[in-house]
Each structure stands twice: as structure tokens, then as C-alpha cells.
């Protein structure tokens, strides 16, 4: 498990660093970023995993969310993986679209050829990456998870499927019901095949009903988000939570869109939410 | 003076907006960004002009500096122009370098053909853009100016050449002595010609000696900045200020580099510095 340093930048008294490593889960080299707050110099700190949306790499969140200031204040590390396996040997969408293939792994384990060999972002994010991070940096095994859009879907699904593994979960504008929106149906058809019954284990709304752990969900959603009605569908999440009596704080934010300007405006509140759970 | 909206994003209760307009000073269309804090809905707010560095557009600062949170708290608008004239009709460096031509206007008025027709970023930033901004948005004529690297040079030179026009000035890693560093000498040769006596009116260290107004300078400089010794030379600025008894707060920041991670780490302190002056 060797890590090659790609970049290191001092940030709010801590460090933003990028590393390349070979992922056995994904069968390719991967780059991820970590923000280590100043407190990490004196002992292990908890970790928030951030899952980004379509087309992103580790860089979007680290450069645009403005999260380091509050992470430094609260003493939380943040780890941002890439959004898919990449590289010449990794099959991409033959049509070159932005919403499937490279940059669009959807945080599932693909079962459908030719994607099943590499597209195992679920296993990477849940297992391989935390094992690597916890072995390589001064961090504890107290974990939180959050993300945006496709990454919001990823964060919610991963928390729901792994009771006890995360202390807290939140999302910005998640794809709440991917089995019934164009982005999700395209991705799941490609990664999982045509049998829709196999899709349900990757759908937040389906998982909520049978969740063995009732971890409260914090979700922010911009009301001016152009993807609100067709792709994100937060009302489906609200309905699923109400039916299952699952704790949800869904905040509709007037005027906000799908951009990192939206995320930056509310990231501090999410970090405080996670810090409160991580301190317990 | 018509403005075409390019983008509008809600941000920290205010608005980040981008506009395109035709600049008569530069003889081309230009895009700039403005952050309007929530207070602008209730009356005029003061404005900080931010000048970016080589290769940047208006987007780098707005996306990466994390300035909107504190600007919203303090009630300050921020205007970020582009770093040069652009477009097919605007001559670029024939060698296509990053440090001359498009993206590298150096905030001077060029006198040397073929650049003298378009490269008048000084007049644009000092006159045309503020006139447009103050006519178009709920802002007052209380102005501050700051910038990074090439833009730090621009902010210092513009403040020094315009006593009374800015309430405060600051810079991150400015090119402090452009007449005696590779970036500056290349740009000034191209924009101003071979006669180095004409360069002096665009050099902070030369202007400090005869400054009619002793506006205090706040400068942050990363000690791990790879351009520190060859290009930026903050010690020249310190010497010039000491000789002229010009007030300077030069803060060397251990471990910080030239990136926006550095800027983001200290932007709040610069905004507070400007807010204190703008409130007077």
C-alpha cells in the first residue's frame, strides 16, 4: 500500500494533500485528497468522507467548498476520493457522455460486463480507501460521510448499507431515487444490467424502508437547482423517510442552485453536524 | 453600458454574478464577476476590487478563495475582473506563453505596438470598471483593492498611483519589484518597450518612495512559495517601505505556497482589514 504524493499545500494551519496509489479493488491507479487539520499533529482525528458528483475528481470539493476553515476549527480530517476508476485500461462510455463511465462511477459495485472488472467504487469507498487512510495518517476510525448529487446518493446508500460504520451522514442535492430518474436508470442499466430488481440495493428510497440503523439524515437542497424535479427528487426521500419513520432533516434552500456556491454556503453547518456525532 | 448576465448563483444569502460587457477602454468584450452580500438588498455597500494573477479569469478567486462567507458577514461587495483583454482581435504572445498576452495584462497601460491598442488594464480597473459597477449595482464609492501575485502588484501600484481613491489596499504574494524580476521584465518589455525609465511608474518599489498618500500596506507571503526569491521579492518591498517610512505589515507565513489554499487561509483577515477602513 504505497502512496505517491501528488501535491501538498498548507491550508488553515493544516495540510491539503493529494496522493496516488494502486487500487486493487478498482484495478487501476487512483488519486485521492485528504485535508489534515492542525489537530492531527497531536493525535488521531476523525474523518469525514466526501463523495463528489458527476464529472468531478478529488479537486472540486477541496478547491471550491471552502471546508478547510471549519474542519481546522473542529479538528476533522476530510478525505475526497475520485468519482470513478480511470485510466486507459478502464472502459469508458463509448459515447463519451458525462454521466456514465469515467467520472460517473455512482458508488456501486458493477456486475455487468465490461464494467464489472473496474467499477467497484462502493467497495473502494467503504473498505479499501478507509483501510489505507487509517493505516497511513493520524486519523481514528470515527467516520462520517457526505456528498453532492451522485455523491449524495453514494453517501446515503453507503451509510444505510453499513450500520455502525459511520457516526453521521449528510448530503447536498442527492440523487434520492436513482432507480426512477434518467441519470440513475442509465447508470444502473450500464453497471448492473437490465434486471431492475438488482438496482434496489443501490437506491436510498428503497433502502430506507428496511434500514437496520436509524441514523438521522441531514439533506440540503437548493430550490433553484435545475436538476431538482427530473433527477434529484427530494420529495421521494421525504416520503420514504415518513413511511419508515426514518429521521430526516430536509432543508429546501430558496434561490440556491446545484453549484459549489450552494455547497460552500452550507458546508459549515454540515461539518458541525458531523463533528457533534464524531465527538461522541 | 449594457451588461449581459453570464451566470447568477445564490451564495451565503447574497449573489455571485458574472457579466459580459463591451469595454471601450480595452476594445473587446470582457467578463467580470461580482459578489453582492445580502446587505446590498437594503442599500449601497462598499466594494473590494480583487485582481487575480497570471492565467486567471474572474472565476479563480470567486470559486477558490472562500471569500463570500466573510464578505456576507461584513457587508462588502467583491468585484473580480479578468486579467487581460481577450478575444480573437486581441494580440496574444506569439509564443503562447502563460506570462504574457492573454491572461497576463499586468494592470498597465501598454504603449508598445501591437499591444497598446488593447492592453490598458490599468485604465479599465481604475476607471471604466468602477464607473460601470457603481452605475449598475447597489454599491457606494467606498473602494478597497487587493490581489494575488501579478494582481498583488496591480493592487499596490493602483493604490499608490491614485491617492484618495481607495480606502485600503492589501496583497497576497505580490510581484513587488517587477522591473527587476523575470516575469516583470518580460511583460514590461512587451507592453512598454525597451526604455526602462518608462517602467518605473508601474513598479511598487519605485512608487513607494514618492507616494503622496501613506496608505498602510497589508501583505501576506508564503515562505514555501516557489516564486518567492526569483519573482516576488518581498524583501525589496520591505526595504522600499523602510526607506520611505511607508507603513507596511508584511507577514511571512511559514509553509504556505502560492496557491489559493494559501489565499483562502488568510482572506478573512484581509476582508476584516478592508472592512475596518471601508466603514470609516
CATH superfamily of chain A: Alpha/Beta hydrolase fold, catalytic domain
Biggest β-sheet description of chain A: 9 strands, mixed
Given the helix and strand composition of chain A, which structural class is it?
alpha/beta
Number of strands of chain A: 9
Oligomer: homodimer
Strand content bin of chain A: 15-25%
CATH class wording of chain A: Alpha Beta
The number of helical runs of chain A is: 9
Distance between the termini of chain A: 31 Å
Shape by Cα distribution of chain A: globular
Q: Supply the CATH architecture of chain A.
A: 3-Layer(aba) Sandwich
Word description of this protein:
Chain A is 34% helix and 23% strand. Chain A has one domain: Rossmann fold, CATH 3.40.50.1820. Chain A has nine helices and nine strands. The first copy, chain A, is globular, with a radius of gyration of 17 Å. A nine-stranded mixed beta sheet of chain A has the order 1-2-3-5-4-6-7-8-9, with helices on both faces. Chain A is an alpha/beta fold. In chain A, a hairpin with a 4-residue loop joins strand 2 and strand 3. Chain A starts with a strand and ends with a helix. At the A-B interface, strand 1 and helix 9 of A face strand 1 and helix 9 of B.
Q: In brief, what are we looking at here?
A:
2 copies of one chain form a homodimer. By secondary structure, chain A is an alpha/beta fold. Helices cover 34% and strands 23% of the residues of chain A.
Attribute tags:
280 residues; homodimer; 34% helix; Rossmann fold; globular; alpha/beta
